[in-house]
């Protein structure tokens, strides 16, 4: 039996300001670094030790991984892939959630943010010119930060990674940690758990809360947070802000 642990990176400076980050990269806020330490304590108490770690190439994910393994006292090779980077938000990038609701309306905000097929329009050249990436540019593969992605687009780009890399490791009985972003983890859940559109719309994954599931006979077991009460409170806060 394999074990899969999903961890959304700790809170960033953009998260704290409730600003859409997308393919811009932002450092962890002090609160985010503290979240990673708590996550490490929960994993240690559970006795979970990774055989393999996969991470997004973005700074907020790689820093989360670095802190997590440091707190756990684990030194092992970490694999990175651009396929796990955050969803490209197009015109929502670098816009606060409050302003996005006012500018585009509640219906568009919900459709672009929460549904499987909603895709934010591309950012204007003027909007792109005003972006200042707060961190060194990570490997984003062929993705363009100014071109919006739907969640289905994200599912498509992670599918080959799931088939070629993650599922075989789980099938071999490995314990795999995946450190990524709210939307890539939502897309992975939609892909491997066969979630309905409504289930995907309701799914919010809070920062810094380990989510664990078993893998056996080609199927993932039920997901569970290691601190259920705290995770559900955090997920409710995310939902109130407009979702992951």
TrEMBL record:
<comment type="pathway">
    <text>Carbohydrate degradation; glycolysis; pyruvate from D-glyceraldehyde 3-phosphate: step 3/5.</text>
</comment>
<dbReference type="GO" id="GO:0004619">
    <property type="term" value="F:phosphoglycerate mutase activity"/>
</dbReference>
<keyword id="KW-0413">Isomerase</keyword>
<dbReference type="InterPro" id="IPR029033">
    <property type="entry name" value="His_PPase_superfam"/>
</dbReference>
<protein>
    <recommendedName>
        <fullName>2,3-bisphosphoglycerate-dependent phosphoglycerate mutase</fullName>
        <ecNumber>5.4.2.11</ecNumber>
    </recommendedName>
</protein>
<feature type="active site" description="Tele-phosphohistidine intermediate">
    <location>
        <position position="9"/>
    </location>
</feature>
<dbReference type="InterPro" id="IPR013078">
    <property type="entry name" value="His_Pase_superF_clade-1"/>
</dbReference>
<feature type="active site" description="Proton donor/acceptor">
    <location>
        <position position="86"/>
    </location>
</feature>
<feature type="site" description="Transition state stabilizer">
    <location>
        <position position="181"/>
    </location>
</feature>
<feature type="binding site">
    <location>
        <begin position="21"/>
        <end position="22"/>
    </location>
    <ligand>
        <name>substrate</name>
    </ligand>
</feature>
<feature type="binding site">
    <location>
        <begin position="182"/>
        <end position="183"/>
    </location>
    <ligand>
        <name>substrate</name>
    </ligand>
</feature>
<feature type="binding site">
    <location>
        <position position="97"/>
    </location>
    <ligand>
        <name>substrate</name>
    </ligand>
</feature>
<comment type="function">
    <text>Catalyzes the interconversion of 2-phosphoglycerate and 3-phosphoglycerate.</text>
</comment>
<feature type="binding site">
    <location>
        <position position="60"/>
    </location>
    <ligand>
        <name>substrate</name>
    </ligand>
</feature>
<feature type="binding site">
    <location>
        <begin position="113"/>
        <end position="114"/>
    </location>
    <ligand>
        <name>substrate</name>
    </ligand>
</feature>
<dbReference type="GO" id="GO:0006096">
    <property type="term" value="P:glycolytic process"/>
</dbReference>
<keyword id="KW-0324">Glycolysis</keyword>
<comment type="similarity">
    <text>Belongs to the phosphoglycerate mutase family. BPG-dependent PGAM subfamily.</text>
</comment>
<feature type="binding site">
    <location>
        <begin position="8"/>
        <end position="15"/>
    </location>
    <ligand>
        <name>substrate</name>
    </ligand>
</feature>
<dbReference type="InterPro" id="IPR005952">
    <property type="entry name" value="Phosphogly_mut1"/>
</dbReference>
<dbReference type="InterPro" id="IPR001345">
    <property type="entry name" value="PG/BPGM_mutase_AS"/>
</dbReference>
<feature type="binding site">
    <location>
        <begin position="86"/>
        <end position="89"/>
    </location>
    <ligand>
        <name>substrate</name>
    </ligand>
</feature>
<dbReference type="Pfam" id="PF00300">
    <property type="entry name" value="His_Phos_1"/>
</dbReference>
